[in-house]
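One-letter codes give the sequence; each number marks local geometry. A record appears below:


***
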Amino acid sequence: MAEALIPWVCLHCRRHPARVVCGDCVASMASIRMQRDEVMTPGGGTSCEWHETHTTLVDTALYGWRYEGVVRSLIRAIKYDGNRSALSWLCQQAGPVLADAMASFRPDLFIPIPGSRDRQLKRGFNIPSVWLATYQGQLAPRASVLVRVSPTVALAGLGVSRREAVIRDQLVMVGEAVRDRRVVLVDDIVTTGSTMQEAARVCRMAGAAWVGVVGMSRTIKKTTGLGDS
């Protein structure tokens, strides 16, 4: 009865009927799929601010999509509205990213980046943990060995230096699971990379032999001959 009175519409375009995303919007996701040469050697007028300054902490990285369009709408619906249908659908769509990471990186452990404790309790889930837990293929063990020691302020809208100051010393390693291991840090969005930088630093301090990064999406900055746009 509820569906008859208030039909489902696409979470992105808000025009076409769909439980999560309509067919047209699904097709548009191909246009924001990340390419491997955009990770460590940005091309086509794009660059990744974090990888330009923090590549010594991370050996390599892999992402699914640019954080824009349909993917941005879905992640916002998950983070701010707790939309579990969107979470399940996006995790399924992002499964090949984990498969690629497994085949390319050959990790010993996947480590989900922990979210804010307050927001996670309110939301009821952590997106990277759900992504790893619901993947149907074969993966290296998942280890939730990174924890936040105190609440952090919201990072949205903060610049790189401010983000790094906020997140500094907020993550700690539990146990010695990463010592001499190849580990992959997993998150839903990499924006400035401040959280990943801190997580990678903690892993290195704990003896990790190799650190990779996997993200569902990442924010990129467009550049022109006149400077950043």
